[in-house]
Give the backbone structure.
Amino acid sequence: MTEENTKKPQNYNAYVLGINIGVLAIYTIISKAINGGFIIDAFFIAIQFFACVIIAITEKKWVWILTAFLILLIGFSTCVNFLDMQM
């Protein structure tokens, strides 16, 4: 195997993770500006989580499962932070 072949999956994994975390950050910032935005944020987190799981099943790549659980973990912590700030 050449060096180029070993770097492709790593770049793909970083790309998938980076894009998903970026999307999470964008809709979290937007929902923070809205009153009661934690419900919208939780809705988008659920959609993104299930989309990542479905893509993981169809493409058979573990990076999508990792991304799904990171989205769930980071998203849950932001929702808890939203609720704490509103009370």
